[in-house]
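QA checklist item 7 of 12: single-chain prediction sanity check.
[x] sequence parsed
[x] length recorded as 393
[x] structure emitted
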Amino acid sequence: MFETLPDPRLDGIIALMQAFADDTRMGKIDLGVGVYRDAAGRTPVMAAVKAAETRIVETQETKTYLSLAGDSAFLESMRDLVLGGAVPAGRVAAVGTPGGTSAVRQICELIRLARPEATIWVSAQTWPNHGPLIRAAGLGIRAYRYLDPEAGALDRDGMMADLEAVARGDVVLLHGCCHNPTGVDLGLQDWAEIGALLERRGAIPFVDMAYQGFGEGLDADAAGLRHLAARLPEMLVAGSCSKNFGLYRERVGIAMAVVPEGQRARLAGTLAGLSRQVFAFPPDHGGRVVSTILGDPALRIMWSRELDEMRLRVAANRRGLADALRTATGSDRFGFISGQRGMFSLLPLSPAQIETLRAAHGIYMLGDGRVNMAGLNEASVPVLAQAMAEVLR
């Protein structure tokens, strides 16, 4: 039966993780895996999460099933965190999912059911799993220009020109903030122009919100998404709690659909039906941690302060690397790094230069030059800068 299966293609990030683990050199630097790390290189459990988990263990009396949609307190707290009251609760259908990845796939399945001929428009540089998830759902996919690699900034004219080809009923996938892998975010004016274009073209935004709080702050990072929600009749949102709550292994996600009044019940039932076909009931523990934190004023303050510290540390790493590269190379060609947002940036390095960094210096990054800024610290920033200056000569 299985002899006809093709050999699986090894995921690039997983392969990089294994190569790093097999490297016995001291001082090696992992900039590939997309997890937050503190200055000591750890991915800690947040204090607010530990406090919430302790409360749950002490008070929870059953592990029986909830609804197919998941815990209502989690859904409501995440709806408020992401949408911030931009639309009435009666216009939002939501289900919990096993992580943001499952939320993206769930929404793709929803699109396939509603409009199988729709094309999903994705930024030319995007999270590597977006394409496979969209194609696995049987949907068409097209790219729109996004990054100006020379400037390390948004190719605004190219993006808007490409999106003029969006057809009625198509879906445009946007990163809510902290664009992965470029670190180049849309400004409020960009969101407004995209909203006007989608309204005029009759297309639907699909916002992947994986890093809320890591860019400029919880509300600032969601401002563009909220603008679209308030302006347009329909919107799709995939949310993740992996980064901003540090709940990577708990797999906490949410899929939301903003719809016109009177359509919520249909969408909620359809989303729940899709859950039933794949995983039935979503995992509860991580979602309960999130709703416990967001529902308790003291825990919420504790969490938001921890998140601010994480955000500010990543921003400091960006400034430090830009400064170190300015010193090491004698130019400001990498100054764009300090102005980008979130954990990731694309460094303008060739595959050969990236391989030299790994082989000669023990510095690991993805083959397209994506680096995790949270993987740096005060000691490793100058090491990376000097190594990059060497391979660029």
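[x] summary fact logged: The first strand starts at residue 29 and ends at 30.
[ ] second reviewer sign-off
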